[in-house]
From TrEMBL:
<feature type="transmembrane region" description="Helical">
    <location>
        <begin position="195"/>
        <end position="215"/>
    </location>
</feature>
<keyword id="KW-0813">Transport</keyword>
<protein>
    <submittedName>
        <fullName>AEC family transporter</fullName>
    </submittedName>
</protein>
<feature type="transmembrane region" description="Helical">
    <location>
        <begin position="227"/>
        <end position="249"/>
    </location>
</feature>
<dbReference type="GO" id="GO:0055085">
    <property type="term" value="P:transmembrane transport"/>
</dbReference>
<feature type="transmembrane region" description="Helical">
    <location>
        <begin position="163"/>
        <end position="183"/>
    </location>
</feature>
<feature type="transmembrane region" description="Helical">
    <location>
        <begin position="67"/>
        <end position="90"/>
    </location>
</feature>
<dbReference type="Pfam" id="PF03547">
    <property type="entry name" value="Mem_trans"/>
</dbReference>
<keyword id="KW-1003">Cell membrane</keyword>
<keyword id="KW-0472">Membrane</keyword>
<keyword id="KW-0812">Transmembrane</keyword>
<feature type="transmembrane region" description="Helical">
    <location>
        <begin position="255"/>
        <end position="275"/>
    </location>
</feature>
<feature type="transmembrane region" description="Helical">
    <location>
        <begin position="102"/>
        <end position="123"/>
    </location>
</feature>
<feature type="transmembrane region" description="Helical">
    <location>
        <begin position="36"/>
        <end position="55"/>
    </location>
</feature>
<keyword id="KW-1133">Transmembrane helix</keyword>
<dbReference type="InterPro" id="IPR038770">
    <property type="entry name" value="Na+/solute_symporter_sf"/>
</dbReference>
<feature type="transmembrane region" description="Helical">
    <location>
        <begin position="287"/>
        <end position="311"/>
    </location>
</feature>
Length: 312
């Protein structure tokens, strides 16, 4: 992978975030605009990225095996990140009552909003497909391990799985079934999915830019002592651990690069929403998401460079 391509992609992402921040000056992010952005990204753009990727990748038995492998690796990496966050929280923040939040923020990355568009730009349709499968593994981890950790009674209920039934997941299932049975959609539908898929990155970055403008300095200073652990684990330690994990296996090059890039993603955007639902620290989730995204603009190119030293 050319490092210049990575740098250019991150630079474009940065410029999109700046545009989002400028937009927030005239149209501040509120509950209504937030819902509109999330609906367009999650229910239109991301499913179209998934379908577009499937339409442009030749499906065969080996490809399906690699898809299953990416899904399993995603869950393993997510759990490793959560375990690292939990461990570091206990060691460095013994008196903190936010251990469960720190653990989840350390392991769950923004593999949908940022990861899928970035992998599509860097690695093409195959990378976008693997990224979507990785993101599905993140969803499974959220609604199983994440929910159990956030609940006071620490019990898993089957009704939590209903949250995994969403349009991006349906797009993965429908697209893979169509590919497996060699069902080719009309060209007009393929063209439509390609064009709608191109909306994902700009909309997601505009949204993040608008979130950044909503930060309050006082809240950041107050929460900073709690946030350094999840940000360090998510942006540095987990990618390094993932590099060592996959370095010993002879996997497909695009698969390895996709998994590694997804492991480098900043904290998941859903964190604040998830924490609010289970009466955890919603503010900490939102602040960690925004700050890790800003720092990720620096750490992602650096970690990609480190990755290239091991892969090449």
């Amino acid at each position: 992978m050319e490092f210049t391509i990575v740098f250019q992609s991150i630079l474009i992402i940065t410029m999109m975030i700046i545009i989002g921040a400028i937009l927030a000056r005239t149209s501040p992010l509120n509950n209504e605009t937030r819902a509109v952005f999330i609906n367009m990204i999650v229910n239109i753009a991301m499913p179209c990225i998934i379908l577009s990727s499937i339409f442009h990748v030749d499906m065969n038995e080996d490809m399906f095996k690699r898809i299953v492998l990416v899904f399993v690796l995603s869950i393993v990496i997510n759990v490793v990140g959560i375990a690292l966050g939990w461990t570091f929280a206990i060691i460095f923040q013994k008196d903190s009552d936010r251990t469960r939040e720190i653990a989840l923020l350390s392991g769950l990355g923004n593999t949908g909003f940022i990861g899928i568009p970035l992998c599509a730009a860097l690695l093409g349709p195959e990378g976008a497909l693997y990224a979507a499968i990785f993101d599905a593994g993140v969803d499974v981890t959220i609604w199983t391990v994440g929910v159990v950790m956030l609940q006071k009674n620490r019990k898993f209920a089957l009704h939590t799985l209903k949250s995994m039934i969403n349009i991006p997941t349906a797009a993965i299932v429908i697209g893979l079934l169509a590919a497996y049975f060699n069902i080719k959609p009309p060209e007009v539908f393929v063209g439509l999915s390609d064009r709608l898929a191109a909306m994902a990155a700009p909309l997601a970055m505009f949204y993040i830019g608008m979130m950044i403008m909503g930060l309050q300095r006082g809240n950041v200073r107050q929460a900073a002592p709690k946030m350094w652990v999840p940000i360090t684990v998510k942006l540095i330690l987990l990618p390094v651990a993932t590099i060592f994990m996959v370095h010993f296996f002879n996997f497909d090059s695009v698969l390895i690069q996709t998994v590694l890039i997804q492991s480098m993603m900043p904290t998941i955007t859903l964190a604040s929403i998830l924490f609010a639902r289970y009466k955890a620290d919603e503010q900490m989730g939102a602040l960690t998401t925004v700050l890790s995204t800003l720092l990720g603009l620096v750490t992602i190119p650096f970690m990609v460079y480190v990755m290239s030293l091991f892969i090449n």
